[in-house]
Inverse folding.
């Protein structure tokens, strides 16, 4: 009997902890504030904003219907790898595939940078790529350690 | 004796009209003077030079035009006149443009509706900074002339596919009316200028074959700073300038336009203006791209091959 009760208590604890962790997943994040925090903490060259309608050109096979919210900046001069992407998806199940898109884009940039702008390789090698719930993030900056800290706190 | 009494008849005194007439005359004289003055003022303000004087002015303008033939162009002076745009006043002359595109009054943005801009990383900012619509700019890092003539899939279409330049043009602007090319910075270090221009000419052949009616503008390679991080024996300001000279000659031979966009980015020493430098001595900040766009707007050729050249 005691074993049955102990087992049931374990199950209850399991469900409670699962419920708690699921509450963390639905954390509502203001992407504009996160981007502002990153831009305030890290030095960037002159950056430009990417529109949702142009996402495909940057390796993200997504349409406006897929995106709940987005912040996407990149160096406009065409020679540095600085880039920060914050995406909130409408469908959380697509998050992993979007992470793969971000990795593929990073690899493509690195392939060019190896010969063209090798100084940028450090930003790409240590780029921060991840997801949490419906959120996907990518950051290649002058201070990826700081970017990682901000992003992991935010999500 | 009858006494007669004489009565003195006092007649009423006739009123005098003299003051009234004097006043009236004065008023009439005043009105006359004012009328004459007004008419004199009116006709002197609207007066035009006599026929002889006007002819003399036109002759002197034409004489001035003759002193400024477009470089490399057959100066065909059709008309000269003055225009006022804001505070700027300038004279223009209509010239037939053979190769070098002269400065002209700013065209409207719609001039580029049917234009495609082909380039490398230097042109990326035109798209990314929103200077030109995404649809009109084909630009990627590291693209060189060999990628273009070999049909390498170096450009990204708006739906995310990699594509060679010609199909990429079709995907953006079907049958472009104008094709702008800014290519060279990635090829100059590894190619002799002679070989580079030969390949460039092959690309022009491909474009002319596929788009026979398009106006093709070959742009001079943009300048670098004196301390650019890319400078080495095979990539110097002198080699860039020599490439541009040869590009101009090739443009003359191919019958395409040469757009010397380099001049708007260059300081007095022949190097990239430091305020436009994005940090590596070659690529541009957004203000450099905007300066380029202003240059494009003020160096246009009409569909008939003529331009309203500003006489400076």
């Amino acid at each position: 009997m005691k074993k049955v009760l102990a087992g049931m208590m374990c199950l209850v604890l399991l469900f409670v902890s699962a419920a708690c962790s699921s509450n963390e997943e639905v954390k509502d994040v203001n992407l504009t504030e996160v981007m502002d925090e990153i831009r305030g903490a890290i030095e960037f060259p002159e950056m430009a904003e990417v529109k949702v309608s142009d996402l495909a050109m940057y390796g993200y096979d997504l349409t406006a219907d897929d995106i709940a919210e987005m912040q996407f900046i990149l160096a406009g001069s065409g020679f540095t790898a600085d880039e920060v992407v914050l995406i909130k998806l409408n469908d959380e199940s697509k998050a992993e595939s979007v992470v793969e898109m971000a990795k593929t884009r990073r690899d493509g940039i690195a392939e060019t940078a190896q010969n063209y702008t090798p100084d940028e390789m450090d930003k790409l090698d240590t780029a921060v790529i991840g997801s949490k719930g419906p959120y996907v993030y990518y950051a290649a900056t002058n201070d990826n350690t700081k970017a990682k800290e901000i992003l992991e706190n935010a999500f | 004796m009858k006494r007669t009494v004489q009565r003195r008849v006092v007649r009423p005194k006739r009123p005098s009209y003299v003051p009234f007439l004097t006043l009236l005359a004065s008023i009439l004289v005043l009105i006359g003077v004012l009328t004459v003055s007004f008419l004199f003022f009116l006709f002197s303000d609207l007066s035009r030079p006599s026929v002889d004087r006007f002819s003399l002015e036109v002759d002197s303008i034409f004489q001035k035009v003759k002193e400024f033939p477009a470089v490399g162009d057959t100066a065909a002076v059709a008309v000269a006149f003055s225009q006022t745009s804001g505070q700027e006043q300038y004279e223009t002359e209509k010239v037939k443009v053979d190769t070098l595109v002269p400065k002209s009054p700013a065209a409207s943005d719609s001039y580029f509706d049917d234009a495609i801009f082909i380039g490398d990383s230097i042109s990326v900012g035109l798209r990314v900074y929103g200077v030109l619509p995404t649809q009109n700019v084909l630009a990627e890092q590291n693209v060189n002339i060999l990628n273009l003539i070999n049909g390498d899939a170096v450009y990204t279409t708006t739906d995310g596919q990699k594509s060679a330049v010609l199909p990429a043009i079709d995907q953006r602007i079907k049958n472009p009316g104008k094709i702008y090319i800014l290519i060279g910075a990635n090829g100059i270090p590894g190619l002799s200028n002679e070989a580079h221009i030969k390949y460039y000419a092959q690309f022009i052949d491909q474009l002319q074959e596929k788009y026979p009616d398009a106006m093709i503008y070959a742009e001079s390679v943009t300048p670098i700073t004196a301390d650019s991080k890319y400078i080495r024996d095979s990539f110097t300001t002198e080699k860039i300038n020599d490439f541009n000279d040869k590009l101009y000659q090739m443009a003359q031979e191919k019958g395409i336009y040469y757009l010397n966009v380099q001049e708007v980015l260059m300081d007095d020493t022949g190097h990239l203006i430091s305020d436009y430098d994005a940090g590596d001595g070659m690529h541009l900040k957004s203000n450099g791209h905007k300066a380029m766009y202003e240059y494009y707007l003020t160096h246009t050729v009409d569909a008939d091959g003529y331009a309203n050249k500003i006489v400076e």
User: Anything to note?
Assistant: The beta strands of chain B are 80-85, 88-96, 115-119, 137-139, 155-156, 162-163, 178-182, 215-219, 257-259, 306-311. The first strand of chain B starts at residue 80 and ends at 85. Chain B touches chain A at residues 120-125, 128-130, 134, 139, 141-142, 156-160, 278-280, 282-286, 289 (CB under 8 Å). Chain B has nine helices and ten strands.
